[in-house]
Amino acid sequence: MTDKTSQQENTSPEEKIVPAKKIIYAEIDDEVTTIFDRAHETKMNDIYIVAPKQAMIFQSLVNLKILKKKIEDLGKKMSIITSDTNGIHLCGQIGVPVYNRVDMGGLPILSQWKNKDDKEIKISPLKASVNTMEDETPTRLSSKKVSIVDLIGRGSKRERPSMMPKGFNIFKRKSSHEDVVPVTDPVNRKLVLIAPNKQALVALISISVVVLLIIAYIALPGITIYITPKSSVLEQSSNVLLSDYEKNKGEVDSHQPRVLAMHQITLAVKKTNSFSATGKIFKGSNASGKLTIINNTTDTRPLIAKTRFQNADGVVFRIQSPVVVPKSDGVNPGKLEVPVFADEFDANGNVIGDRGNLGPTKFILPALMGSTQQQLYGESSTPMTGGKSDFSKKISKEDLKTAVKNMKTTLANTAADELVKAVNEKNSSLAEKMKFDLVNNKFAIDISEPRVSVDNTLEEKIQDQFDVYGEVDLKGYYFNKTEVLEILKAEIKTKQSPQKRIARIDEGSLSYRVFDIDKNTGHIKITATIKAAEEFDLDASQELGAQLVRKIKENITGKKISDAKDFVRNLPEVEKVETKSWPAWAPTVPSIPDNITVEIVR
Hints:
This protein is α+β, with helices and mostly antiparallel strands. Helix content is about 25%, strand content about 30%. The protein is extended and about 145 Å long.
């Protein structure tokens, strides 16, 4: 009789022989998805899951139902092998077969599998009474619980207690090429810890944080006071003699105090400007119509030919022949209707054209004075018509004269700008410590008589604009602006107030005023001025700063932060104060002076 036959004869009716590869060994913390993935990988249809006590899949009936449903969806049947009473009860509720052991005839599991080529093992189903267990009050385990401290104290070489009942042998699959290995293998075993209650853990952490904050609030408060020193504007002026280097080389090279070299710069400026023509040739047509002349005086009023009648917009109409306007009879004014024609240009010199197409309106006689204009005037009762705007520009004689005059003014007014531009071109190639500046004073700049030319044959030419050419010779002086700055910087430092420091010198504020020019000797005297900001020197390494820090700490310890800020702000050395405390909600300054830090903000 073969080994297999003998084994089958020794198998009880409740037992059955199943292939070992059908069995899946679950860890205590394996989730439903992990077990399902392993069940999905096997090709067997009967799946036996060995689950230890307190396995995660027994924590919820829903989890077990989901696992069963997923395995059945694969066309497979699920059975459970476990001694966990809760798991047995849950399996009974959803109809999952339960077995309580794996029996190989008493032989070591690993040897038995090796001898039988890992082909088969025995499993025994639980009795019906176990599967139909009813809910009952939990009972205390007879075995002693093992704490984390006990596990740590036993050392790394000792094995952890088995979570499975006696007689169980737990296997852990290593790979698809090997069947199973015992979990007692030190390489593959792992310590399983029961997760603590989350609410208790959160409460413990919260209490710990509160305690730490209370300790920090009592023992470690601090405050940093940021102080901006009070500053004021300091202005320094100095007289400087600029000497023409070509004429006074020896004087300049002797390096006398406040004597600096200046150099001549000459420039020929040529310009061509365009000017617009203002003359006009009217090519349209003039409006015409009729108006009634009204005379409120008791005298007849003769009017000569071409007498002007003008409305409020300056549009002018004229009568063509002399007329006599009848006088008023004392009740009704004298009236005379006459034909009138619009001028080409209005009272302001603008073309009338279609502007002469007016509706009924009132006209005055601009030649009359004062109240007489209210006694004798004109009114139209019908529209004026026939006006058309069309004209061409022409260059008038007045345009040519005005253009020449404007060109001379332009050359004179832009002389300084042209010299400044020429000096700046020199600066572009200079070293950083060299920066030339023009002596920008009209008495220090020589301007020749401008030479302007225009084509006089353009008079009465019909065109919109024309060109005018002009040129002028310029001569000026420039000096090294950096040398002036150095003189002023050196002098301003000697003028600073005691216990103060020069915070910054505003080089952009440099200005000078020319108060004497002697072109014969080549001397120009200027007064140069610069501004700087000086502030209290509150550096802690300086006496004033150290005293101030001590004074602040002595007067603000233990006070409200708002009161402390008011005290510091009112100090004569302080311009602005800000604070930053820790903890941020602390209402008072620490009572320990060493916990107060004072920093100077520049």
